[in-house]
Amino acid sequence: MLLVLAIPGVIVLVVFHYLPLLGNVIAFQDYQPFLGIRGSDFVGLSNFSVILDGDPEFLNALVNTLIITMVQVLFVFPLPIALALVLNSMLNERAKRLTQSILYLPHFLSWVIVVALFQQMLGNGGMLNEWLRSADLGTFQIIGVPELFKLLITSQVIWKDTGWSTIIFLAALSKVDLNLYEAAAIDRAGPLRQLWHVTLPAIRPVIVLLLILRLGDSLTVGFEQILLQQGPVGAQASEVLDTYVYNNGIIGGNWGVSAAVGLVKGIVGVVLVLGANRLAHAMGERGVYSK
Asked: Which tens digit of pLDDT belongs to each residue from 169-212?
């Protein structure tokens, strides 16, 4: 019965995730939409020249992607863990549930709404600058400043998804044996030692698993979010691999080149997952899958 119940999910996975992989053949073609895959000329590896020859636009998109990924891994990934620990320590259940509900809400807003909210708050004519003007304190430019763009999109991700990401960690924390805390207290372990020696080791497998999955998705840093804000700051500061694929493929008509970049990005993601999983096995963790 469980296998029967899984059939609809398997069908969706095959139709929308595995069958589209066949479309990667256009990475090796001079693809023309009106000719189709069968009618387009085969060009071998020439579409990969933007990668092999170091095309400046591609390199700019790659560097921006790597910088945003590093910033988000360092600052975005740990925040749900810290927030989950704080929520888990709350003794008042009603206050805890109310806080969780408030923190979950931004996740359900689309990026269009989130970007609009940040513009209304931090834009040149936003609430912050209007208040600064009324107090004769000058203005502070945030929106549309290329140097602050990466920090801006990182703060948007934190505001939107940190609360929602705590769900998995809270579920892991709920499975921690309370007897371990009692034993630690008997051994005169304070709250910090209990956190370090009981709580964090208990949720370490979940942390490792999510970090591996995050590495596999590391070259994907928010297509819609960045595309909505790309105009004011320019491509030099905001172009990432996903927007590079869109701007060159859908907008520019270089379908083969865009498919080649997307294919390489996917392969790198798979390699990162497999490599991180092997490292997790070497450290004694199960990872995404066991040996």
From this structure: 888 888 888 888 888 888 888 888 888 888 888 888 888 888 88
Interatomic CA distance for residues 17 and 216, integer angstroms: 16
Q: Are 41 and 30 contacting, i.e. CB atoms less than 8 angstroms apart? A: yes
The values of phi and psi at residue 29, to 5°, are: -130, 160
Determine whether domain 63-283 maps to CATH 1.20.120.50. Answer: no
Q: What are phi and psi of 91, to 5 degrees?
A: -85, -30
What one-letter code names the amino acid at 141? Answer: Q
Q: Helices then strands (H, E): number in the chain?
A: 17, 2
Q: What is the pLDDT of residues 68-89, one digit of tens each?
A: 988 888 888 899 999 998 888 8
Residues 6+ apart with CB under 8 A from 288: 209, 212, 213, 273, 277, 280
Q: What is the pTM of this model?
A: 0.85
CB distance 259 to 31 below 8 Å: yes
The residue among 39, 42, 38, 45 whose CA lies nearest residue 30 is: 42
**212 with 288: CB under 8 angstroms?**
yes
Question: Domains of the chain: which residue ranges?
Answer: 63-283
Written as six digits, the tokens of 240 are: 């990432």
